[in-house]
């Protein structure tokens, strides 16, 4: 019985640690995406690469929505796609 409780406590702690890792990774990726979009906007990306700019904005919006709902893994993935779209727009100019 005592051994079972110890295993359960370890599993609960591990799950909290894992979710915390996704929290910080998603938060960092959202910040990186915001920075890339700002660079694209400053370079005139709205006119020079409208598809990439709109895609980056849409992915970032989705990432922020997922983050606000505590879905950190999808938030990180969407923020990563946003950053990639912004970088693709920067490469076009």
User: Under the CATH scheme, which class?
Assistant: Mainly Alpha
Q: Which regions are unreliable across 5 or more consecutive residues at pLDDT < 50?
A: none
Q: Percent of residues in helical segments?
A: over 70%
Quickly give the CATH architecture: Up-down Bundle
Strand content: under 5%
Bulk shape: rod-shaped
List keywords for this structure.
single chain; 93 residues; mainly alpha; Four Helix Bundle (Hemerythrin (Met), subunit A); 91% helix
Can you give a write-up of this model?
This protein is mostly helical and 93 residues long. It has a single domain, classed as Four Helix Bundle (Hemerythrin (Met), subunit A). The protein has 4 helices and no strands. The longest helix has 41 residues. It is rod-shaped, with a radius of gyration of 18 Å. The mean pLDDT is 90.
Can you give me a brief rundown of this structure?
With 93 residues, the protein is mainly alpha-helical.
Give the SSE layout.
Blueprint: H1 2-42, H2 45-48, H3 50-68, H4 72-92
Helix pairs in contact: 1-3, 1-4, 3-4
